[in-house]
Amino acid sequence: MFANCQLGGMNMAMPDVCKVPAPPPPVGPGMIPIPFPNIVNLPMAIPPTACLKVLISGGFAHNLITTTPISNGDEPGVLGGVASQVFIGPSKHLIGSFTVLYGGMPATRSLMDITGQNGLVLNAIGSTLVPSQFKVMIMK
Question: Which of 4, 77, 78, 88 is deepest in the core (most CB within 10 A)?
């Protein structure tokens, strides 16, 4: 599928179960777990974590090291994720291409590779559903 780069694109994951404040006991439980969508904009990736020597349509190519520090969609869950205890957390690809390497690390693709979103302990598993460009394809 299409190679990921710094130009555009989005990673999306659902459900990102986060804890939302509720009335404290004895009136309520103090927090309620609610599922939210988790959306990550690829242009917000930290540039030094992308491959700075490979440009795709003018944007830095993304590999497995590329990290996006902020995600959107779970802002109401201010008490953190159920698994990660983080909200508005980082996103990172977990699987990449087995044959194409950028800077010595596997390249990432849209629609095929799995992303871990909202913390080091993953609160949501997703994928790149919106490609960042439509010219370069990675087939393997």
Answer: 4
